[in-house]
Automatic annotation (TrEMBL):
GO molecular function, one term: peptide hormone binding
PANTHER family: NATRIURETIC PEPTIDE RECEPTOR 3-RELATED, RECEPTOR LIGAND BINDING REGION DOMAIN-CONTAINING PROTEIN
Name of the protein described by the UniProt record: Receptor ligand binding region domain-containing protein
One of the protein's GO biological processes: signal transduction
Length: 285
């Protein structure tokens, strides 16, 4: 993902290379010092600095990077505050970031109103593209992920399926809503939906045993929209309910990236149980 800011700033430099004034003020809107966010300024900042140096050496374009950082975690309030502060005190040419979807929604609309280009590597839950006229988003689209799941189901002629998703999470909730809409529009039937809640410390607060029992009785094809550790817990319960030994049930979990941060991890936790039976993983490469 560190390549994204580099490509973004390279693109900026090419666009403005013909301008008389080679200086270019870029507001960098990023979370600062996050424990959990992989896209905070500590992780992404070095790539932005390298890109700025490359723009200067290759295109003779000076990028003046103006910090619009906010502390520790995503915050739409802080993001729009930092963006307006920068726009008021200087002639901002563009924004890079935010890298949080909720933050991007408010800043993206503001940038559209002010006619300021905004570039980000994320922003996967934006629904109405027309509201973000100046946004260039270098990320995947949730529709692609939903269409991939439906194409997989269509291949096996599975027209009915159940769905489990993490509630109160903007990514998974938006994904669930979109998948339901596209599925029903394409002749599929979502026969049942169950949601679960996870606390900030990643503890699952919902009764997964009850959720899996409900899904067992309503559908043999189950799409799971949640984190990998949550899915593992569900598959352990599925094994205990004898849903993984005979091939009667299929569990589908979509996975965007295969790396050590997401997807390419060991399911073994030393309990001797094998949880992957009948577990179908979709991966986009």
């Amino acid at each position: 993902m560190t390549l994204i800011p580099y490509l973004i700033l390279q693109w900026i430099a090419v666009v403005i290379a013909e301008d008389a004034d080679p200086s270019f003020k870029v507001g960098v809107l990023m979370v600062d010092g996050s424990v959990h966010n992989r896209f905070d300024i500590q992780r992404i900042g070095p790539a932005i600095d390298i890109a700025a140096e490359s723009c200067q050496s290759k295109y003779n374009v000076t990028l003046s990077l103006l910090p619009g950082y906010y502390p520790r975690e995503c915050s739409a309030e802080y993001a729009i505050g930092r963006a307006t502060d920068l726009a008021m005190i200087t002639n901002i040419s563009a924004f890079v970031g935010p890298a949080c979807s909720d933050d991007l929604q408010v800043v993206g609309r503001y940038a559209s109103y002010k006619n300021i280009p905004i570039l980000t590597g994320l922003g996967d839950v934006l629904k109405d593209r027309d509201e973000f006229r100046t946004l260039i988003r270098m990320s995947y689209d949730l529709k692609d992920k939903a269409h991939a799941i439906l194409a997989f189901l269509e291949h096996f002629k599975w027209k009915k399926f159940g769905m489990i998703y993490r509630q109160s999470d903007v990514y998974y909730t938006a994904m669930a809503d979109l998948l339901f809409y596209l599925a029903t529009s394409a002749g599929f039937e979502v026969v049942c939906q169950q949601s679960y809640i996870r606390a900030a410390n990643k503890t699952i607060l919902s009764n997964l045993d009850k959720i899996m029992e409900t899904m067992r009785d309503c559908s043999r094809v189950i799409v799971i929209l949640g984190g990998d550790k949550d899915v593992r817990e569900m598959m352990l319960i599925a094994k205990e309910l004898d849903l993984t030994s005979k091939g009667d049930y299929a569990f589908i979990y979509s996975e965007l990236f295969q790396n050590e941060a997401k997807g390419n991890l060991s399911w073994s936790r030393g309990n001797g149980m094998r949880t992957q039976n009948n577990f179908l993983t979709l991966s986009r490469s």
